[in-house]
Amino acid sequence: MTNLILTTLDWVPDFPRGFVRDLRIRWALEEADLPYEVATTPVGDAEARLPFQPFGQVPWLTDGDVTIFETGAILMYLGEHSTVLMPTDRPGRTKVMEWLFAALNSVEMPAVPWSLYRWADDETQSPGRAHLERFLHGRLDHMEVVLARRDWLAGPFSISDIAMADVLRQLQDYGVFAERPACRDYVARATARPAFKKAFADQMAHFEAADAERAARSE
Amino acid sequence: MTNLILTTLDWVPDFPRGFVRDLRIRWALEEADLPYEVATTPVGDAEARLPFQPFGQVPWLTDGDVTIFETGAILMYLGEHSTVLMPTDRPGRTKVMEWLFAALNSVEMPAVPWSLYRWADDETQSPGRAHLERFLHGRLDHMEVVLARRDWLAGPFSISDIAMADVLRQLQDYGVFAERPACRDYVARATARPAFKKAFADQMAHFEAADAERAARSE
């Protein structure tokens, strides 16, 4: 790899800070001790992002001539360049792939839509909503069984834990772990890692610097 | 690879037939012309599936000593064993990974929860539901722009098209493609492939054979 550049938004309001998806990539880069720079794209100009990210979102990672979007794909890309993030033997690698997809396609799939209702303080009950509730809680019940038996999903800590822990972390303020201690402890274990702490602090500092710049410009 | 065994449910009611996730794997196996056998797990016994699939679902793929769950991970595994499903050069492979994760984490994430409401004939409107509607339609609008410019997502047909076309196919009866002809044509193009037709027919035949067996047993 050459000079890695991680592109994220130049500014966001307080609410999503600490949860912008560049966090997953910062975390992986810190775990692997890979140096990188941060570039920004204007929050209000989704059109400008389309050549790099077809949904107008962040993040994307640039490695010389290559630009990669989708956090799952970026995590795989970094995993292939660092034995700290993913083992190189086929069985170990296969386990990491399983759990990476499990995080993003089996657990995050109900988690994000379910969270949309929470963010909206929407208490409206309906048959479709009941299906969505069961979908999320079913997945969390299964994760509770899995996490009661192991520290990390695929043996040693890997990119699959970065994805799963960050997916679960986004639910932790909504009371879903009150009776799921293994999920709660897993999130605590993952977010206690120095690489997570550094990544989180760096994301917060990035947006605080943007606040300061905005304030200076408006004076 | 050795003898590939794809495990799916022994029987399902009419409604999900043609949409059980083993279809994505059958499709990939047919595209790659890889021989495989089908094994079954009793539909009513999710507990029995947990050693192979931590959410109690199907499918999983067995390749000798290795068992793989999550359709995304199985598609990657097969892609790494067949140049028909994924190119071997790094830039080509990276594009396939991006679009595979885009299908499963950016498009299927709103598509399945949104479909839960349709399946339930649930017309209840609420703020959270409005967010979910915007989430899905925003992603489809972006896919329309992408698909208006290319036949397949990552250059040649690949596992990313199997995932994306199957995600979009599940929405096609709900009117969302009336003003999105590129999405509609992409699904038509993908499902016209002989490998899809074979996979689809095989899944339907699998469950029809199960009906016949049930009928014979109850006589």
Describe the protein in words.
Two copies of one chain form a homodimer. With 219 residues, chain A is α+β, with helices and mostly antiparallel strands. Chain A contains eight helices and four strands. Chain A has a four-stranded mixed beta sheet, covered by helices on one side. In chain A, helix 1 packs across helix 8 (194-218). The longest helix of chain A has 30 residues, at 90-119. Chain A is globular. Chain A starts with a strand and ends with a helix. The model of chain A has no long low-confidence stretch (mean pLDDT 96). At the A-B interface, strand 4, helix 3, helix 4 and helix 5 of A face strand 4, helix 3, helix 4 and helix 5 of B.
Uncertain residue ranges of chain A: none
Q: Rounded to an integer, what's the Rg of chain A over CA atoms?
A: 18 Å
Instruction: Estimate the mean pLDDT confidence of chain A.
Output: 96
Strand order of the largest sheet of chain A: 2-1-3-4
Secondary structure class of chain A reads alpha+beta
| Global morphology of chain A | globular
**For the terminal residues of chain A, how far apart are their CA atoms?**
42 Å
Provide a short characterization of the protein structure.
The structure is a homodimer of 219-residue chains. By secondary structure, chain A is an alpha+beta fold.
